[in-house]
Each structure stands twice: as structure tokens, then as C-alpha cells.
Amino acid sequence: MVTRKAHTLVTTGPYRWVRHPFYVSVLLLAVSCAMLAANWFILASGLALFTMIVLRSRIEEGMLVERFGDEYRRYVERTGAFFPRL
Questions:
Q1: What is the pLDDT along the chain (86 residues), one digit of tens a residue?
Q2: What global pTM score does this model have?
Q3: pLDDT value at residue 25
Q4: What are 18's strand-pairing partners?
Q5: Which candidate, 66, 86, 69, 72, places its Cα nearest to that of 19?
Q6: Residue 15 near residue 77, CB atoms below 8 Å
Q7: Helices and strands in the chain: count of H runs, count of E runs
Q8: Where does residue 2 fall: left (phi above 0), alpha (psi -120 to 50 degrees), or beta otherwise?
Q9: Of 65, 72, 73, 80, which is the most exposed, with the fewest CB atoms less than 10 Å away?
Q10: Residue 48, Cβ neighbours under 10 Å: how many?
Q11: How far apart are CA 42 and CA 54, in angstroms?
């Protein structure tokens, strides 16, 4: 992941509730495909993929803290990574 000098921190739209809405959609797709196919292998593969995504998101968030500093830390405090905070 590369953050450029012109990048801005987006906290509106789906990013208002979760920091990684695209990754959540991948999880939902994997679960729905597994349910449609009634196949445990597809579900296990999707969960393995999601585990890798979680690891990648930690690296991305470290880079975002470096780029945006306290602004990103405040954003992290009020939003969930994959599920909205209550």
C-alpha cells in the first residue's frame, strides 16, 4: 500500500462506520457463496482469506498512522475495523 502526499483521510460514507468496508464485503461474499453452494470448503477458504486480510489491514493501518498521525488515531478510536462500534 502506498500513501501519496496528496492523499486525504476519508471518514465519510461507509468509512464513517468501519475502516475497511471493502474487506467486509469480501467476507460477506465468501460466506454467501459458501451458503449458496452448501460447501464447507468454500467457507473455510473464505475464512482463510479473511484471516490474511486481517493481517494485511494491520500493516496498512500502521502506514496510515505514519501518514496521518493523530488524525488517524482519533478515527480508529471511533470506528471499528470490520464491524461498527456500538
A1: 555 667 889 999 999 999 999 999 988 988 898 889 988 898 889 889 989 999 999 999 999 999 999 999 999 999 999 999 88
A2: 0.81
A3: 93
A4: 80
A5: 72
A6: no
A7: 3, 0
A8: beta
A9: 73
A10: 11
A11: 18
